[in-house]
Amino acid sequence: MRPHRKRNSGPRCRSRPHRARSNRHPPTAARSQAGAETHSAAAPPPPPPPPPKPQVQPDTRDADIALERKKKREEEEKEKKRQQQLQLEKERKEKERKEAEEDRKERLEEQKREKLEQQKKDKAEKEKAEREKERKDQQLEREKEKKEQAEKDRKEKAEKAEKAAKAEADKKKAAEDKRKADAAAAKAADAQRAENLRRMQGMAGATGSATHNAGPGGSSSGSGSGGPSAGYAGKVAAKVRPNIVFPDAISGNPRAEVEVRASPDGTIVGTRLVKSSGNPAWDQAVLRALEKTDTLPKDTDGRVPSSLSIGFRPND
User: Fold this and answer.
1) Fold adopted by 208-312
2) What is d(CA 275, CA 256) in angstroms, rounded to the nearest whole number?
3) I want to staple 210 with a disulfide (CB 3.0 to 4.6 A). Which of 46, 115, 227, 294 is the partner?
4) In the chain, where are the structural domains located?
């Protein structure tokens, strides 16, 4: 291969190739002479043909130039194609690089978004866990407070029950003590009354009795010449009746007769139901009212009868 020549930038010079000239004669005369000699029977053999004249080599410089130019063009075309291929390859690589860069950026953005989403999710989960923990803590606190309150209520209830039982026991004991005291007082009153009767009988030489109206709500009776005045029963009824608590309705107007024993200063020392009204609730209401009254008023003579029977009706 010939060395590559630089392409001339000037105008191309086209030269025509030299045509080789031939010095050959036309073969017609030779063929005619040969035919004539053939017809001679005794003719000697023909002399050998003269040696061919050396042919002149054509001038191939123009062809070489044309071939060189053709090769040059082909090489230039190849180089151009190679450069184009290189350019295309470069563009392809640049495109791939840009696409790879864009993909990388997109992956980074996606990773960033995923990271942010994960952070939001983690934060939401953490807040949810904290809220759940706070809710459970509050629930445990409420349950604890509820248990403490229940224990407190139980203790208070037990204390109240204990106090109530103690109060009931004290009440029963007081009632029993009062009953014993009332019995003792009644016994003493009976003894005093008997003594008074004996004394009065000894003084008057006889015994007697007197009965008085008790005014609205009942009647009263007392002993002999020392009995209460006519209006004394009304005074006792006026003092006792405000203490009667009886909200229930009752049919009719039944009478409960009660015996009341009092000390000389008027303190009621005993009560006894002499005759029931037929309604136990009314009977108990009268007895409770007498206990609440506590003392009897003094009679017109300034004294209090030691024993008195008085009746009470709900509608009087």
Assistant:
1) 3.30.1150
2) 6
3) 227
4) 208-312
Largest CA-CA distance found in the chain, in angstroms, rounded: 245
Among 17, 96, 118, 123, which residue's Cα sits nearest to residue 60? Answer: 17
* Nearest to 241, CA basis, from 282, 301, 302: 282
Residue 7's nearest CA partner among 95, 101, 73 is: 73
Q: Of 167, 195, 286, nearest to 237 (Cα)?
A: 286
Give the tens place of pLDDT for each residue, 19-30: 444 444 444 444
E strand spans, the chain: 209-213, 219-223, 256-262, 268-275, 307-312
Residue 81 and residue 74: Cα distance in Å, rounded? 10
Residue type at 188 in one-letter notation: A
CA 290 to the chain's CA centroid:
63
For residues 128 and 154, give the distance between their C-alpha atoms in angstroms, rounded to a whole number: 38
Q: Are strands 209-213 and 219-223 parallel, antiparallel or unpaired?
A: antiparallel
Smallest CA-to-CA distance from 250 within 207, 224, 284, 290 is with 284
- Per the CB < 8 A criterion, the answer to whether 56 and 21 are in contact is yes
Q: Coil, helix or strand for 237?
A: helix
91-114 residue pLDDT tens: 999 999 999 999 999 999 999 999
CB 316 within 8 A of CB 218: yes
- Do the beta carbons of residue 2 and residue 68 sit within 8 Å? yes
* pTM: predicted TM-score of the whole model, two decimal places: 0.32
Nearest Cα neighbor of 308 from 253, 269, 282 is 269
Instruction: Say how far apart CA 18 and CA 61 lie, in whole Å.
Output: 9
